[in-house]
Give the backbone structure.
Amino acid sequence: MRGRLLGRSPTSTGAEIVVEASGLAAGAGDSVAVEGTCLTVVGSREQRFSFDLSRETLALTTLGSLEIGRAVNLEPSLRLGDPVDGHLVQGHVDGVGTCLALDREGDGARLTVEVPEHLARHLAWKGSVAVNGVSLTIATRQGAIFEAALIPTTLSLTTLSLLEPGDGVNIEVDMISRYLDALISHRIPKEATRHVPLR
């Protein structure tokens, strides 16, 4: 679903944002992804929800620079037993990419995005990536640039239809890729390979 960013104010630990969202059933303590960023509701009143942003969230996402009044993607967290469509998206944004193009193709569109260089290794042809919280399949990939096809439903229900060249987008790479990268990039401790004689 979509909501609207109503306000943003600085705090001692980062910032607070207020989002308007009719139809969002969430209360204090609930997790809601805002533009793909997992946040905790700290207050709600009359379909207005407030969220605290840490300094890290401000540094790694677009939430600190989004224009007030702009539409935002909203998604409450899944509960055990809920159906999963697309790939698992945690709301743990890895960095900000750049929209290079949104080219209309009939009722759909083709989105071209460039990601930060350190995230390029996580892009796999026919693999998954989340852009502003929207699960997408990578159609083509060259270096740090990928393209994804957007169906009419995605354009009508999300904020991706509003993107223009140069806009920043929140990127979350595939969870499996992130964990595999962490596993293979760390050296095995000597203690783990030491021969222990059997008794």
In short: The two ends are 62 Å apart (CA to CA).
